[in-house]
Amino acid sequence: MSGLWGYALMMVTASFIATCSQMLLKHAAKKTHKNFIAEYLNRWVIGAYSLFGLATLLSMYVLRHIPLSLAPILESTAYIFVAVLGWVILKERLNKRQILGMVLIVAGIFVFSL
Fold it and tell me: Which of 37, 47, 104, 110 is paired with 77 by a 20 to 30 Å CA distance?
């Protein structure tokens, strides 16, 4: 995958992977553990930090190929992913302000891409 659009898609994918990592950490935080070690050395936490490491490596790779001004714009998609995945997976409610915020983020990305 090459070209600016390909790298932009890779950056959004890295953002999505980081969001999945956050969902795993939130899931792990809801569980009770028998001791301090089990709280931090369990499959959910290890999986989450592994995904986060992958997202970081992918982001660093992409940053070598896209304009630096584009990176924060594409990373802002993480806010949308967190809200949507929280709603779908964790059954969290979205209020009007959150939905308006997501619309503004998408509008900002669209305006920047013009």
Answer: 47
